[in-house]
User: Which sequence fits this backbone?
């Protein structure tokens, strides 16, 4: 039953991905401006030859059919911005950087968020509660560009501890990772805190306390076995948030990753590069959602049991 449910959800995700790709394909072409609009007006014959060269002279439905067939065969086309580079080549160099940035931010968010949530739920001290509430509200409320600007001003301009931009070594990774991980860390902390507090009120926790187990034993041996399970369900949404949030972060910190290429491609109407990045982002989200559901089923045996009729 679990396999059938997973296949059904995978089919639904792939259908949503297909709708997303079709929507992006048509919307980017209906948007004002074109890929070869310049400050000077091109002669009609020159524009005609360019459109024929890139297949833009055909009706949009035919263009979409050509793109689907080419993509199914593994050909993502040539970039309009970078005519000497194929889209697949650009993505093969940009995607590892975005993947590393997202993995660092995801790891930092869980490594910091889970202990903060556990500590807050276990201690329940007023000072800790106020400090944590201030941290969570700031992390969720402040826009990414404000956080990035503050971090650059403090650690790069004032203290000269870290480089302000680029992606040339571990020291360059710290500020982008910190900017990207703050919001998901706040979500994970809040969820973990609420989950631990709910589990600590369960009957089996009261039984463990009645047997004379100490607070640490009750927390680490019994409560956390169930309290951490909801955080696994956040893997897919958090990965999605990190992927979409990387657009802004990569642009601010001048990281040559997927987000920066996507923003540049949209502004310059680079149709093949826009579709290639959208496809890769969509497949990444499908993968992380499927991985999150798999880990959730592995952690919670109840999800692997077939439904029983009463």
Assistant:
């Amino acid at each position: 039953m679990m396999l059938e449910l997973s296949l059904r959800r995978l089919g639904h995700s792939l259908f949503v991905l297909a709708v997303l790709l079709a929507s992006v394909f048509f919307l980017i072409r209906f948007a004002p401006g074109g890929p070869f609009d310049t400050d000077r007006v091109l002669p009609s014959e020159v524009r005609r030859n360019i459109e024929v060269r890139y297949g833009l002279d055909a009706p949009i439905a035919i263009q979409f059919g050509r793109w689907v067939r080419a993509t199914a065969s593994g050909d993502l086309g040539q970039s309009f911005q970078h005519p000497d580079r194929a889209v697949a080549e650009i993505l093969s160099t940009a995607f590892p950087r975005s993947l590393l940035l997202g993995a660092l931010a995801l790891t930092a968010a869980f490594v910091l968020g889970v202990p903060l949530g556990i500590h807050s739920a276990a201690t329940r001290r007023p000072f800790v509660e106020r400090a944590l509430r201030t941290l969570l509200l700031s992390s969720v409320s402040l826009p990414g560009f404000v956080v990035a600007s503050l971090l650059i001003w403090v650690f790069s301009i004032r203290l000269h501890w870290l480089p302000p931009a680029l992606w040339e070594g571990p020291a360059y990774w710290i500020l982008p990772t910190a900017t990207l991980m703050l919001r998901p860390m706040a979500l994970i902390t809040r969820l973990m805190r609420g989950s631990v507090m709910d589990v600590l009120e369960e009957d089996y926790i009261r039984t463990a306390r009645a047997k004379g187990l100490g607070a640490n034993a009750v927390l680490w041996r019994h409560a956390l076995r169930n309290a951490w399970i909801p955080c696994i369900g956040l893997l897919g949404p958090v990965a999605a948030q990190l992927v979409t949030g990387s657009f802004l972060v990569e642009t601010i910190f001048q990281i040559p990753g997927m987000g920066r290429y996507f923003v540049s491609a949209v502004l310059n109407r680079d149709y093949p590069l826009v579709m290639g990045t959208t496809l890769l982002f969509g497949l990444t989200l499908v993968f992380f959602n499927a991985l999150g559901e798999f880990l959730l089923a592995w952690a919670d045996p109840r999800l692997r049991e077939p439904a029983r009729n009463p």
